[in-house]
Structure formats: C-alpha cells, structure tokens
Amino acid sequence: MNTADALARLRAARVGRLATVTPEARPHVVPFVFALVERGDEVRAYWAVDRKPKRTDRLRRLRNLEGNPAVEFEVDGYDEDWRDLWWVRASGTGRVVEAPDERLTALEALTAKYPQYGSEPPRGPVVAIDVERISGWEASAGIAGGEP
Question: How many other β-carbons are positioned within 10 Å of the β-carbon of residue 11?
Fold first, then answer.
C-alpha cells in the first residue's frame, strides 16, 4: 500500500486504536476518534477529551504522554473474505495543544468529521499527534504490501 492510499484510509476511518506507553514501559491501547489535518508534507492527527462518560478528564493516555510522547495509532478493515483485509499504522509524537489557534483548528477538523461535536463540543484537552511515519498493508497486494 502506498502512502497516498494509506492517508486516504486514515482520513476515512471513523475510529482507530491509539497506543501510548505507560510509566512501566507497557503499551496502553484504547479506541479513539480523530481527524487529520494535512499541510504540505506535514500530517497531524487530533483528538480531544470529549463529553462521553469518563471517570476523569485526566485520562491515562494523557498521563502516559507526559512521561513518553511516543504514540502509534492504527485503523483497519476486516472482512470475512480475507482477501479484503487491510491496516494502516501511523507513528509519531503526541502533545497536548496549548495554542488557542491550533486548538480551534483541531476542533474545527473534529467537528467536520464528527457532527456530534457540533452540539457537544469537547471541553477537555486537545491532543496533537505529529505523524512521522505511516505504513500499511493490504491482503490484495500480497507480500509486496506487507509490514515494513
């Protein structure tokens, strides 16, 4: 799978799986919704602590980023016909967005993708993932499209 196809699948994905690293150097994986913002060769993914029920706004994934900003997220397509399987993985650095203009950009992108945010905008922190690497695989491409 080439980068353009991988980016198209990331853009279209409704949900992904986000992996951060705990203080004990263990992976912590959660489903999340996100929006991509692309400027030239720069790709950034944004997600926000929204109003869905949570025990706290101080989520484990936020605490993990404070100690280790390394992040990966994955989206995939599953089908009982395994010839149609695919996945895309994005690796980068996560950070809480501090600048008001960047927060606005992120929330606009999230609202454009998820109409639920129009009626219930996220109140919590917004996180940017500065994407450094994208890789993907699809069954229809055979071995040549495999994991790098």
Answer: 13
- Stated pTM of the model: 0.89
Per-residue pLDDT tens over the stretch 88-137: 999 999 999 999 999 999 999 999 999 999 998 888 899 999 999 999 99
Separation between Cα atoms, residue 148 and residue 137, nearest integer Å: 9
Asked if CATH classification 3.10.20.30 holds for the domain at 3-139, the reply, yes or no, is no
CA distance 52 to 11: 22
Run of H or E residues at 138? strand 126-138
Tokens standing for residue 97: 């967005």
Host H or E run for residue 35: strand 35-39
